Amino acid sequence: MSTRVxxxxxxxxxxxxxxxxxxxxxxxxxxxxALPLVAAAAALLRPVRLDNVPANxxxxxxxxxxxxxxxxxxxxxxxxxxxxxxxxxATPTPGGxxxxxxxxxxxxxxxxxxxxxxxxxxxxxxGGCRIGDxxxxxxxxxxxxxxxxxxxxxxxxxVEAGKVVRGTVSLVLPFRSRGATIAAVLRAxxxxxxxxxxxxxxxxxxxxVLDALTTVGYAYRAGERILTLVPPSSASEDVPVWKVPGDxxxxxxxxxxxxATGGTARIEGxxxxxxxxxxxxxxxxxIPTADEAEALVVHGRNTQPTGRPLxxxxxxxxxxxxxxxxxxxxxxxxxxxxxxxxxxxxxPGRHSNLVPQLVRMGGEITELSSTECxxxxxxxxxxxxxxxxxxxxxxxxxxxxLTARGVTTLGGVDQIRRGHADLPGKxxxxxxxxxxxxx
Length: 439
Fold this sequence. Notes:
Elements (H helix, E strand, L loop, with lengths): L12 E4 L5 E5 L4 H13 L4 E4 L5 H13 L2 E3 L8 E4 L24 H8 L1 E5 L12 H9 L3 E4 L3 E5 L8 E4 L5 H14 L3 E4 L5 H11 L4 E4 L3 E5 L10 E3 L4 H13 L3 E5 L7 H10 L3 E4 L2 E5 L11 E3 L12 H8 L4 E6 L6 H11 L5 E2 L4 E6 L7 E3 L3 H11 L6 E4 L1 H7 L3 H7 L3 E4 L3
Parallel strand pairs: 2-14, 3-13, 9-10, 17-18, 21-22
Antiparallel strand pairs: 1-22, 1-23, 3-5, 4-5, 6-8, 7-8, 10-12, 11-12, 14-16, 15-16, 18-20, 19-20
Helix pairs in contact: 1-2, 1-3, 1-5, 1-6, 3-5, 4-5, 5-6, 7-9, 7-11, 9-11, 10-11, 11-12
């Protein structure tokens, strides 16, 4: 049975090294999967029930944006993780969605739903973590392929539905963009047309949206080169029930934390294949790790460091290392022998966030470029005052703080809560010496 997680709710967190982490925790639903699933439910313009919805702030912001635009949501009394999305009346405003839409990146997922409800979408430029350019060019090419008109200005962008497209919509993405892939899928849902998409992103977060659509009659075939989606021939009146999958990134971060302390723990609620690249990286370093039925098990107590260099190269290719695994792996690898190379070309600003914070803790890291760094371990860090400038930088600094000499104080905890409702609480449940600092 997994441990009940107490809440940690301060704005500053202090971490000290302590005993090896141990026990069992269950991860929340995935932020990266919940956001497009909420948008897909809205785009159907019919009631949809979502289970295992996480309470992180990005998801709550997206649900609030639905309210602004005219949808209704509800949940059973005492069960905030189940959400019923209900279409309402179109309430377009001249200025489009408000300031909250610029606080998260995922606001762009709502474009197809807004077109379905209002015939147009006006949104500010997406925000969220400061980890590089939030270009919308590929999204705009998707909408133009469906005949939509796109206008941009300093405040944001407008997408207006054009003439109805007949027959299959075909386009090829220049790279495997998750956001553009989901935009194409949801726009095809709204248009009611078949889709043929070249070079799609086939991450678990995209596949869970496609699987959800099959419950309302859609059919798809997902190949590395081509994704096809066919609308249903008839509509069911049943209320579909979609479940947000467990958060693979939260599971991977907790696994790195357990491994860093030499602990042994069971992390439940995650689909094994979703964390396979991370499991391979941990085993390469000599940390016995296995994925079991809906769980990730780390036997850090039996670690025998191999000294083999780790090449953690984030990629959009199917079955590749998700970029969000890279930061906590980096925080872990600093303590392991070998000359390790880390690369994240997907988020070009992420290393410039994380590396200086680790250097403040005494890390010796060579930046080869804006997206690549190299270092030799093992290194012993020293606690310092550091800042979570984005979600994954914050989680990596927590991993590093668990083994650093002295106290690490972590600010910017609101950034972490954008992706994790209570990651510090889960570490506390595993025995971490982590506590709140009163301002």
